[in-house]
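Section 3.1: Structural characterization of target chains.
Under the original work plan, the team committed to producing a structural model for every single-chain target entering the pipeline before any wet-lab resources were allocated. The record below documents one such target. The sequence was received from the expression subgroup and is listed exactly as submitted; it comprises 271 residues.
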Amino acid sequence: MKDLNNKVAVVTGAGSGIGRALAVALAAKGCRLALSDVNEAGLAETAEECSTAEVRTYHLDVSDRDAIYAHADQVLSDFGQVNLVINNAGVALSSSVREMTDEDFKWIMDIDFWGVAHGTRAFLPHLIASGDGHVVNISSVFGLIGVPKQSAYNAAKFAVRGFTESLRQEMKLEELPVAVSCVHPGGIRTNIANSARMGKSENAEAQRKGFDKIAMTTPAKAANTIVRGILKDESRILVGPDAWGIDALNRVLGSAYQPLVERFSRKNLYI
């Protein structure tokens, strides 16, 4: 996909953050946009920012498998084709394995992993039929390394990475016209930390302040990096200098990165 003009792009979680920034960046490239979120007010604001493009908005809970498949059919009916799907919607949870409830574990997996998996599978036949498709799944730097109190988020994001990298190989081996990219953002200045669920012993305010300190990249910069990666057909799109650093750390040290994370966590998470 060397040119995004007149391509139909689907973006989940488009009501704020990276999703909104992606919508704006894609509109500037001439995309026709199918934007979804559970936050209808935020989604309306995003659509207004993309007023130069053809935009349709949809209320969508990505934890609902049947709703995702119905959404895929509706987008095809509304636009006649689908070229680009960005499975971006996500949530956060900070809790130790000991304290995490089954409800919270299921909540984050249903959105952060199953939302991506069902979103990919629902739209894949339409992307293949377009003759020029691209799947973009949002993982995280926490899909590259494990971090204390992020076990559930790590589980979801590692799963997204494995699922997406496997799909990319399948599309190539089967010679199907769908490119596949996995995105690993570092700290992005969004509201994800403010809306995160916390374990009962977590210091929510301290964690949110800590996140604000390490959030190095604006959503607009993140979106531009992702769009460039799409146009270059990059298999792994790293977003932000911290993402590049963490990726390098993992590549160089392998599992030996863990003592470094433990030292950082002892100072910043176990307080």
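The domain at 8-268 is CATH 3.40.50.720 (Rossmann fold).
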